[in-house]
Amino acid sequence: MEVPLYPLRFEPIFQRYLWGGHRLRSLLGKPTGPEPCAESWEICDRPNLQSLVSAGPLQGRSLYRLLQEYGRRLIGSGPSGGTERDFPTAPPEPGAPIGPEPKGVETASWSVPSSGRFPLLVKFLDAAQTLSVQVHPDDTQAAAWNLPDSGKTEAWVVLAADPGSVIYAGLRPGVGREQLLQAVRQGTCAELLHRFEPKPGDCIFLPAGTVHALGAGILVA
Q1: What is the dihedral of CA 11, 41, 95, 53, to 10 degrees?
Q2: How many domains does the chain have?
Q3: What does the pLDDT read at residue 78?
């Protein structure tokens, strides 16, 4: 007998990287233990890492399995109503790529991959040290380059920021391709990035293809 849906909470998945700090525990109350922790993944649906329901009749059920069982009753149909679709009934083989899935069903502002996987990764990041400068492909580029993951657009909400901490997002006005290539070769590309001092409550949207980095002393969702 199918269990009726109810408000679901998932077990956090902790990721420990060298740049992590202690704010996930001290400010958010996450049970990370005494060791530094960089990220807490709140909602994740990847072949090798799954969010599990933390309480109630569906406790222990993975997000992927929930999508197979409940489909759009779980995630809705999108702001325009969307289109009903069938979700796969069998999980992919271990190690199978996450995406991209060009045959997803489009709605007004998002699509559900034909893999049937939840398309968003929701997490907290605690940067005690400055992260590396990064730029992520979009779905089309990821598919063309046969990457194991789909494209990646990010959005950060600043929860805490030390005085003087900075976020790097995009290039400074006037920076061109050749200047950037030369800076990459010289290891000085951070000098060409637009930077600003964030404050709690700021929201930063980073479309795929935007060069960016999170500075030390910042906690974001």
Answers
A1: 20
A2: 1
A3: 59
